[in-house]
């Protein structure tokens, strides 16, 4: 402990730089964790639906949604998600799983939903493509 104190007294510039770097790393990590939703596998999504009655919000366009979607999911295309807020309001107190085609667009929707007050948001890892590959059921309109 004396060595640390001695170093800090004689190398105040380095000590300050170290502390600033440490604080910045903690801030970046906090922001990263807050901004990322939990990515769930198809099996985990199924468990969340069955155990906690999770809501599925499908952000693909309406044509893709009609070609096949998860049973009970709600269509809210990403481009329209902020205008569909009244439709999604009923899910505010439920766990939510955001679904896109490949899992790349869901984080954008997660940010929008977080700003609108939704808290328990998850993402289907790999999107509907992963759901299909896992041989999970889809329904068509």
Notes on the structure:
- With 141 residues, this protein is of the alpha/beta class.
- It has 2 domains: 2-33; 38-133, Oxidized Rhodanese, domain 1.
- It has helices at residues 2-10, 12-35, 42-52, 62-67, 85-88, 106-115, 127-133, and strands at 38-40, 55-58, 74-75, 96-99, 121-124.
- The chain has a 5-stranded parallel beta sheet with strand order 1-5-4-2-3.
- It is elongated, with a radius of gyration of 21 Å.
- The mean pLDDT is 89.
How many distinct folded domains?
2
Strand residue content? 5-15%
- The CATH topology of the largest domain corresponds to Oxidized Rhodanese, domain 1
In the sheet with the most strands, the strands line up as 1-5-4-2-3
Average pLDDT rating? 89
Distance between the termini: 68 Å
Coarse morphology: elongated
Give a quick account of the main beta sheet: strands, pairing sense, barrel closure: 5 strands, parallel
Low-pLDDT residue spans: none
* CATH architecture field of the largest domain: 3-Layer(aba) Sandwich
Q: Helical residue percent?
A: 40-55%
Name of the top-level CATH class of the largest domain = Alpha Beta
How many strand elements? 5
State the fourth-level CATH superfamily of the largest domain: Rhodanese-like domain
Features of the shown structure:
50% helix; 5 strands; alpha/beta; 12% strand; single chain; Oxidized Rhodanese, domain 1; elongated; five-stranded parallel sheet; 2 domains; 141 residues
Give me the secondary-structure topology.
Layout (H helix, E strand, L loop, with lengths): L1 H9 L1 H24 L2 E3 L1 H11 L2 E4 L3 H6 L6 E2 L9 H4 L7 E4 L6 H10 L5 E4 L2 H7 L8
Parallel strand pairs: 1-5, 2-3, 2-4, 4-5
